[in-house]
Fold this protein.
Amino acid sequence: MRPEIVLHSLGYLLQAAGVTIALSVAGIALGFAIGALVCAARLSPRQALARCGAFYVSFFRGVPLLVQLLFIYYFLAKYGLDVPALVAAIGGLGLSSGAYQAEILRGALNAVPAGQSEAAVALGFSGLDIWRRILMPQALRISTPPLINEFILLLKASSLVSVVGIAELTRVSMNIASMTYRPFEAYLAGGLIYLLINLCLAAFGLFAERRLATGRAS
Amino acid sequence: MSFEVLWRYAPALVGGFGVTVLCWSLGAVIGLTFGLAIALLGRLELAPLRWLLRACVETIRGTPFLVQLFLLYAGGPFIGLKLSATAAGILGLGAYSSAYFSEIFRAGFASVPEGQSEAAISVGMRPVDIFWRIRLPIALVATLPAIVNMLVILSKETVVLSIITVPELMYQMQTMAAETFTAFDAIFAMAIFYWLLVEAVSRLGRRLEARLTAFMSGEARPA
């Protein structure tokens, strides 16, 4: 073990960790937008739309992320679209995460008791207001813990983006490994940084869960 | 992509699929075995052991599978663990899934009602029998949906093994794509293939669940 190798390139690693976090945040945000749309499609009374939503979820959850990423990469290349690798990577993470987030949101909406919207109808709320003021706030509260969990999963999945050549944490660990011929230390350091980020996220998730639970009890 | 190309590479692709299935099944067997062992050891009243297991499980669950594979395959030789790519892949899949399986089993054992073991004690069963004939079967049935789900996730993770040059399906397909300049078609075919595979495996899993829980009443059956 030669830990000084890692200390030498610590700045490089931390910068890469920043890229990983930024990628994941962009991916989860895009995924949330896609997830909300897909969830709305799945819950739509129109059969065709609901089926499209179900197909989206089935496809993007069924195809391995690595295949999806390479698909997007080659798809763009085939049609001559000169998109930076970063956009392809965020797009891939977002498309994939969107399928999972659609299911999280659907589950959360289903978990809101039917009596809530019935009561809102009885009080004369309009359709949009029921969504905006009754269903959405409750569904978001229910879906916060699983969404944080999804964020952790996405952060780990973002390591696959290294394959399309973005200098995020895994790629930089690879670079350090090949520059120093000490892969063990390099990957150990990379892994520990991932672990640290995820432990923080998990702690934040617990905190959020507790906060949301107290809000409900009152 | 012409069928001629596919035909020419068919042996490699079929062989690659064989390696995929091999890695998946062996990885799952290792993962299930160690997962069960970790869950059982965690039930012992030994605080240091429990903390150690907890730390291992959280470390594996908190780091990306790809980084674990690199650490095992590229870093392994530096700590005296020299493995071939396929062996590292199988071992990696096993270690990775064992953490998730152990959590599944832990929850499964926790869900067995106390009354079941109390009833077993009162009819005079030995502790060993209570474990093998009462607690374990109930826990296994309760965890079945989660296990099937994890097996499906694991089947998708096998694709990552191509990055450390395990000659599985994805790797063979990429070799073909590089040699014949058919990258887009090859990846497209892969996406469809894995989608069908995952759909088939999860359908099969649901059928298996339905059969194994057929003796239960509708309410007790795991969703």
About this structure: Chain A has a mean pLDDT of 87. Chain A has one domain: 4-217. The radius of gyration of chain A is 21 Å.
